[in-house]
Automatic annotation (TrEMBL), chains A, B:
<dbReference type="Pfam" id="PF13377">
    <property type="entry name" value="Peripla_BP_3"/>
</dbReference>
<dbReference type="Pfam" id="PF00356">
    <property type="entry name" value="LacI"/>
</dbReference>
<keyword id="KW-0804">Transcription</keyword>
<dbReference type="InterPro" id="IPR000843">
    <property type="entry name" value="HTH_LacI"/>
</dbReference>
<dbReference type="InterPro" id="IPR010982">
    <property type="entry name" value="Lambda_DNA-bd_dom_sf"/>
</dbReference>
<feature type="domain" description="HTH cro/C1-type">
    <location>
        <begin position="5"/>
        <end position="46"/>
    </location>
</feature>
<dbReference type="InterPro" id="IPR028082">
    <property type="entry name" value="Peripla_BP_I"/>
</dbReference>
<dbReference type="InterPro" id="IPR046335">
    <property type="entry name" value="LacI/GalR-like_sensor"/>
</dbReference>
<feature type="domain" description="HTH lacI-type">
    <location>
        <begin position="2"/>
        <end position="56"/>
    </location>
</feature>
<protein>
    <submittedName>
        <fullName>LacI family transcriptional regulator</fullName>
    </submittedName>
</protein>
<dbReference type="InterPro" id="IPR001387">
    <property type="entry name" value="Cro/C1-type_HTH"/>
</dbReference>
<keyword id="KW-0238">DNA-binding</keyword>
<keyword id="KW-0805">Transcription regulation</keyword>
Amino acid sequence: MASSKDVAKRAGVSQPTVSRVINGSTNVNKETIEKVQRAMEELNYRPNLIARSLKQQKTKSIALISGALHNPFFVDSTTTIVNVAKAHGYRTLVYFEEQGNNEAVYEEVLKQQVDGIVLSSIFIDDPVYRELEHSKIPFVMFNRRHQLGGNFVEIDNEKAGVLATNHLLELGHSKVAWIGGPTNCSTFHGRLLGYKKALGGIVKGNWIKETNTTEEAVIDAVDQLLALDEPPTAIFAATDAMALSCQSYLMNKGYRIPEDMSICGMDDIPMSRHAAIQLTTVTHEASKPMGQYAVEHLLHLINSSKEVKEDMQVTLRPRLIARHSSGVKN
Amino acid sequence: MASSKDVAKRAGVSQPTVSRVINGSTNVNKETIEKVQRAMEELNYRPNLIARSLKQQKTKSIALISGALHNPFFVDSTTTIVNVAKAHGYRTLVYFEEQGNNEAVYEEVLKQQVDGIVLSSIFIDDPVYRELEHSKIPFVMFNRRHQLGGNFVEIDNEKAGVLATNHLLELGHSKVAWIGGPTNCSTFHGRLLGYKKALGGIVKGNWIKETNTTEEAVIDAVDQLLALDEPPTAIFAATDAMALSCQSYLMNKGYRIPEDMSICGMDDIPMSRHAAIQLTTVTHEASKPMGQYAVEHLLHLINSSKEVKEDMQVTLRPRLIARHSSGVKN
DNA sequence: CTCTTTTATGAATACGTATTCATAAAATTA
DNA sequence: TAATTTTATGAATACGTATTCATAAAAGAG
């Protein structure tokens, strides 16, 4: 690959002059510009971003630490984040974090010298928070938050839990189960809290199923619920992905949705709208996607010169979308 | 951020010695190693991969130019490719290529100094092929191929088209439509060819709908088919994503699947198995995902010292999975 | 004890770029 | 015309690492 030195030699100028042409500096002779541009074309020159990053001490790239794409929620958010970052001239390094080993990913990311991090896989009491804070790299949490605050965009999960549960209660279901993920995630924590709140005192421990969010675990949870003396007639699944697993498994077992079991999810993934699915779900009311808040604020943090940066703490209001996976108890 | 120089100073050694410790060189005193490691910990040192890349003239990273994630097919392949690369110590830069502007993405990628490229968004006669060849960067095409050959993994799309169409014919459907994407993609090209082949002479031009693969375009195509004097009773949609769009739209219009319309897709995305969807589809027979072939061969190309590298041209055999979105014509 | 080999280390350098500083030439002002 | 400012350019350097080369010390061979 041709370097700026090669271009310089061919154009009969010095390397800094080539650099100036590349970066559109003023104060460079028009004829010189043309000479250099010609040489660049002839040599098929492309600036080496690695070298540039080293010199400038910034990479114009951010890291996205996302949940696995098996959950369609992260599909949309990943697309949003990558595209918004790109529109601002930033490249995104995408990491798909499976359960738990945040430390390893975090180590990886730091070595890459990214200018900032969007983090969606963090636990409420994750020690990684302190380390990130200490590293001085700007970071924004997305969808989940940490107990210590910081920058985040989230949905009001507790209110969402209340909305979903109340919806099912209002349809006449008194036996409503909760299936979710680890409650050391702020999302599941909040959604469970809302569920309990809506139910008031009458919460039964074995109606609450905390899984690892995999399809197998969800199926297992459903089986356990069905085996109860008093099986529930409605399920609030804490994500649409889990709701779909419930729905498919129950249908395969001959259950009709919603006649034999009402289901409410959360996230409003695109598939939920499919005519054969029609999943009742909870989403947020904001006019732009959550990921966009995250990236925009992250870039603000990166490019702000102020020593003390203001926090962004956005909690979006939830909204219920009633479709046909939930119905009146018969 | 502390540099290896800082570590060297603190440990009372030279910078190259720190470098040796980092890279596990032999011939370095045990006590020195310990001194250096202690200094690294105390300073919270992390090697700067940008600097390393510049020096070594390789980035240990590959680019994946994928179709947009709205198509679930690319969700799975992206996951596979990122994870396999990671398992081999390579980082993946992910690009989501919308229709057509391959050139721009390609320019971007070259500047990043990646060691290799997995390319899934390429047209049969894409000029980008020549440029990539000229750039000397190893690249492997994934899912789609180019007319000039090169390295690729694909499904036998023509045979897949035959399989799908024959399946519908065997169910008694004589009026089978095709809905697909741009036929300058090898995938759609082949699938259409197979469709025509299976139908023999009796192909009607207005049963063939070439769209841009968006939901709106697919809906439009379905509308056009329904408006025909002789509307088809079965549709072969060239991807599952498009098949789902057909299915949802038709159901919303009151059609029953498969009683009023049989649908066959292709790709076997996870959603196709959902009890409420039950999409008949075509997939491949291989024991490992296509993306894995692509990455493994790409890494082979990158690390092979031979001047002349052998091509990898894999065409996987297709297999029909009959579910309940297709049925006997009534 | 001398000569040779091995081990352990540092000095110098290169990767490709952007940036600072100095300076010559040109343009402007008085 | 002389003095000053502006414009255009190159030389030198830095970013953080890995690598080559030289060399001093230690170990082994005779």
